[in-house]
Amino acid sequence: MKPSWKISFLLVAIANLITFPALATSTTPNTPVEQSAAKEAEELCGKPTLDDLLQHKVKQGETLEAIAKQYQLKTATLMGLNPEVRNGEVQVGQTLSIPPIDGLTYRFKNDENYTIVAKKYNIRADVLFERNGCQRRPKVVFVPGAIWKPEALPFNSAIARGSENPSLIFQTGGYPLPYSVPVTSNYGWRMNPVTTIWSFHSGIDLGAPLGTPVIAAKAGRVDFAGWGDGYGNLVEIDHGSTGTRYAHLEAIYVSQGQSVAQGQQIGIVGSTGRSTGPHLHFEIMVPSGDGWVALDPAPYLNRIASIMTN
């Protein structure tokens, strides 16, 4: 729903009453103009998004990814709204809350308001206000379009880079996930599980659950971040003498040209592109006369994984 200029004006007018501390001391509009604008805005807004959730009962054979596709949502949206499936798995008989659009829930802190939260997620305050039914002082709001991110998984320690940009830093020693996981497909020639054609697999597949943080194996500059055809959501990082590639991500948290630190979260594990299930496709590349050439990551990953588990 796109508000007209008149509706937007009304929404901003009412939102201003709660987003500016000097005007937020009263919970009700004071002047006749404020009261009239509040009444009209509330009539235009309708129900808050969180009061308009569908309920989906998981059936036999369904996966979280399939359910998300059924409702044209990101898997991360369902994970954020339903904490019990944040491991990427659903159980028959479970009931999931399904929002009408992608987004996440956010609980207001004591000193926060619509303007602060809207700026944090780079959306318009009046849109946030409207999506939440023009409620003046809600405790929890739905932020449309925002992507839910998992908390750091426990491995050694995770630290925040700062309150303005809470990208997670994991002390992993160069492993692309917060903990070691089984290899589900090695580097080299194989029967492609999607195309069933004998082809060369230029990386290694790590069988991590949906939503697991994917982290930069080494500091560098993001050379590519976006859709990579069969790779799905793809991030490529240039480390100077080497490069790394992270494919089939559910969501990407970095942008092209951005500098990243070793251990910084760059996305979450998914199953986008040509993929049969959640995993991280990881490549190590070196420059050659014909461009980047992929090497077998197994010796590197085995060495790092053995350090992590000992």
UniProtKB/TrEMBL annotation:
The keyword Zinc does not apply. Keywords: Signal. Gene3D superfamilies: Glucose Permease (Domain IIA), LysM domain. It holds the Pfam family LysM. Residues 1-24 form the signal peptide. Residues 54-98 form the LysM domain. One of its GO terms (molecular function) is metalloendopeptidase activity. The keyword Signal applies. SMART domains: LysM. PANTHER family: MUREIN HYDROLASE ACTIVATOR ENVC, PEPTIDASE-RELATED. This is Metalloendopeptidase.
